[in-house]
Amino acid sequence: MKHANISLFVPHMGCPHQCSFCNQKTISGSVKALTPEDVTETLQKAIQDNNEPLNTEVAFFGGSFTAIPRDYMISLLEASKPFIEKGFFNGVRISTRPDAIDDEILDILKQYHVKSIELGAQSTDEEVLTLNKRGHTREDIIKASSLIKSKGFSLGLQMMTGLLGDTDEKTLKTGEDIISLKPDTVRIYPTVVLEGTELSEKYKKGEFVPQTLENAVYLCSKLLRRFHDNNIRVIRLGLHSGGNVEDGFVAGVYHPAFGELCESAVYLDILKEKLKGYADEKDLIVLVKPSEISKMTGHKGCNKQQLLNEGYSITVKGDDGLSKYELKLKGRK
User: Fold this and answer.
1) Cα–Cα distances in Å, from 141 out to 24, 137, 157, 215, 317?
2) What is the mean pLDDT of residues 11-15?
């Protein structure tokens, strides 16, 4: 069954730093501080629509949850606690900074049924972390990840591509570093330039050149395949649409079908590898898992068109015996 979150935003609270790319007011679409009463009201409403409590978590996103004032953090968790204990939801998910994790805070989180912790790592390259004013180090990411796993929490890591000072090589190295930390989930966000950020000012002065959509799809598809090959679930590709992002957007990669573009690129790469054994056959049937047909075909048929430009005509069909990113080829003759 599909996992679901009841998302509660704690807008830009707890962060001791102002990262070059960050404008939480724009990202979360919220400026009002979340209250325990808000938590109770939201969860009471969510109960009515939640038919899969074992697959649904209460999720505190938007800020650095473990860095907000301790009493305030506990008040929010206290509000969610009875909903978990009564079986309405499976547990709590939070997002926070790598340098806001220690034994004490993890023991507190355990008491309030927190099961999943996502760390905003963004990069494991020290220069990139410094240039973007992250305020934490590569070692902080490694230590926090290890501690979270040792305490029995599910670990999620978030990374970004196209940051100030980043390169394709550094991004792919970050991906490999994340694989070595063995998280359960990953989110990948191409950098979006938002109004009211340092990155926006640098962009307007010509001091920062954002990724192109083509480059972001290329990089993220490589990361996606590597994570899949290492049994790490990618649960998000690109910023969510909605909130105030459209209003605050200045430049960068923000596409409503970004995830589909990346998955389609993975399928195209795999197919091209297999086509090397079909040099003499240009009219082929491609078999994939039925739910993956549209991804193999490509966004608006882009994969079929690209292959047609290279002399191949393909028809994509479903095969229940295949898994994600697995495909078979058959000649029509």
Assistant:
1) 21, 7, 9, 26, 43
2) 64
- Examine the domain organization and report whether 252 and 272 are in the same domain: no
Which CATH number do you get for residue 164?
A: 3.20.20.70
* Residues in a beta bridge with 283: 313
pTM of the model: 0.91
What is the rounded distance in angstroms from the CA atom of residue 326 to the CA atom of residue 124?
Answer: 31
DSSP helix/strand/coil, 310: coil
Tell whether the torsion through CA atoms of 213, 215, 216 and 218 is positive or negative: positive
Give the contacts of 163 (CB within 8 A, at least 6 positions apart): 20, 21, 122, 123, 128, 131, 132, 191
pLDDT-based confidence at residue 1 (cuts at 50, 70, 90): low
Termini Cα distance of the chain: 39
- Measured between alpha carbons, how far is 244 from 154 in angstroms, rounded to an integer? 30
- Whole domain around residue 38: which residue ranges? 4-256
**Residue-level pLDDT at 248:** 83
